[in-house]
Specification:
PTSINtr with GAF domain, PtsP; globular; binds magnesium ion; binds phosphoenolpyruvate; about 10% strand; 8-stranded parallel barrel
Length: about 350
């Protein structure tokens, strides 16, 4: 990256006329992204928990997961860290959890697996909640949601884990207080319990959000918004499912395009509906790390975009060199175009004009 671009890395991501969009990081391996924290990202928008599950030979224990998540949360103690629950299936497999099916991207994937195996889900959520104790910057995100029942069931399990952990913590603190007061007996059991409850009352349930990546959610946003704290678009999967194009099949790679007019209109509708529902909206797919994509998302009204660390300076540079009004004009025109090819040539022209 040029010095010119790197110079803006730690500056706020704000347009020339003062419109802000937050830039966050996508992360999966704990090594390496501490550096990106210094590149001026405002937290983690997507931590892909399945990655550390992949290069092992058995499920990590609750304790192992707690330690790992704690390290991740500590990279941004003052910012939100969004951890996505296990998103295996599709093209991501665990050697110790084989899945054999004909259409894996349409099959047993993401939340579908973890709701069928609540023991896997509960251990993971408990580990996240434990790691969050005292930090309180965790946000939980659910992948591959296609309807409200999945959200209700996941929320039920998250609440279960939360209240169980709170009860355990209260018990542990009570025991500690009692043994400390054993010598002079200044506390009754009831007093110790009350003190412990006062401490655990401060343990807050983290925000819970869902990924918008299955097209069915575009038509259920109001009902979904009542059940969650935030939405985050997974544009990689949304593109794949909206266009019915396998994201990894080179035979049809020319058809896979996040700038396809149908995808842009879906994203615009998502942004408008989120605003109506007063639900924060972000995007964590590859589209956010492309300058033209970031401009369109800014104009649509996305609150946050999340990307790999090395893209942060470049995207900030672009946003800082455009006005919100210019971006809106570009979006308005782009939404009238009818093919991906037209969209690309129009956006390329606009980017060249920006320098
Ligand atoms: C996406 O689908 O856009 C996304 C961010 O998740 P993943 O690429 O891990 O499926
Ligand atoms: Mg996805």
């Amino acid at each position: 990256l040029t010095d010119k671009v790197m110079a803006v890395a730690s500056l706020p991501c704000i347009t020339q006329d003062g419109r802000a969009i937050e830039v966050l990081l996508n992360a999966g391996l704990s090594a390496g992204f501490e550096h990106s924290a210094k590149l001026g990202a405002l937290g983690i928008g997507l931590y892909r928990t399945e990655i550390p599950f992949m290069n092992r030979n058995c499920f990590p224990s609750e304790q192992e997961q707690t330690q790992l998540y704690r390290k991740v949360l500590q990279v941004f103690p003052k910012h939100g860290v969004t951890m996505r629950t296990l998103d295996v299936g599709g093209d991501k497999s665990l050697p110790y959890f084989p899945i054999n099916e004909e259409n894996p991207f349409l099959g047993w994937r993401g939340i579908r697996i973890t709701l069928d195996h609540p023991e896997i889900f509960l251990v993971q959520v408990r580990a996240m909640l434990r790691a969050n104790q005292g930090l309180n910057n965790l946000e939980i995100m659910l992948p591959m949601i296609s309807g409200v029942e999945e959200v209700d069931e996941a929320n039920r399990l998250i609440n279960q884990a939360f209240f169980e952990l709170k009860a355990e913590l209260t018990k542990d603190i009570t025991t500690e207080l009692m043994s400390a007061s054993n010598e002079d007996g200044h506390l009754t059991l009831q007093q110790a319990q009350q003190k412990a409850q006062a401490v655990t009352a401060k343990v807050v349930r983290p925000k819970v959000g869902i990924m918008l990546e299955v097209p069915s959610v575009i038509f259920q946003m109001e009902a979904l918004s009542k059940r969650v704290d935030f939405f985050s678009v997974g544009s990689n999967d949304l593109t794949q499912y909206l266009l019915a194009v396998d994201r990894n099949n080179s035979q049809v790679a020319n058809l896979y395009d996040a700038f396809h007019p149908a995808v842009l209109n879906a994203l615009n509708s998502i942004a408008q509906q989120s605003a109506q529902c007063l639900t924060p909206i972000s995007l964590c797919g590859e589209l956010a790390s492309q300058p033209a994509g970031a401009i369109l998302l800014l104009a649509m009204g996305f609150d946050k975009i999340s990307m790999n660390g090395h893209n942060v300076p470049r995207i900030k540079w672009v946003i800082r060199h455009i006005s919100f009004e210019q971006a809106q004009n570009i979006l308005d025109k782009a939404l009238t175009l009818t093919t991906a090819k037209e969209v690309h040539s129009y956006l390329n022209e606009q980017l060249e004009a920006l320098g």
